[in-house]
Amino acid sequence: MNLRLMFERIIKRGYFPEGKENFGKKLDFMYGLNRLTDDDYAYLVGLLNPVPVVTPLPADHETSSVVVAPTETKVIESQA
């Protein structure tokens, strides 16, 4: 089995018994040994740490006004 496909399956299934950070180190190690190509490494790191995509709201989007009322606070005194 291709190493890239194996790592891709692991990432997509979310199976990280030693933690996600440790898995990233394994990818780095395999890349350092030239077991992964530049493209494979970039793809797998992208799968492991996806970048959230933020889409702007359309100009005609209506927002509702939200009123936040302050709550009462009570001073807590020490019971010494």
User: SSE order, as H and E?
Assistant: HHH
Fraction of residues in β-strands: under 5%
Total beta strand runs: 0
Describe the global form.
flat
Walk me through what this model shows.
The protein has helices at residues 3-13, 20-32, 38-48. With 80 residues, it is mainly α. It has a domain at 3-10 and 18-48. The radius of gyration is 24 Å and the shape is flat. The N and C termini lie far apart (68 Å). The mean pLDDT is 85.
Quick summary:
The chain is built from three helices and no strands. The chain is mainly alpha-helical and 80 residues long.
Reconstruct the topology from this structure.
Layout lengths: L2 H11 L6 H13 L5 H11 L32
Looking at this protein, list some descriptive labels.
single chain, 80 residues, mainly alpha, 0% strand
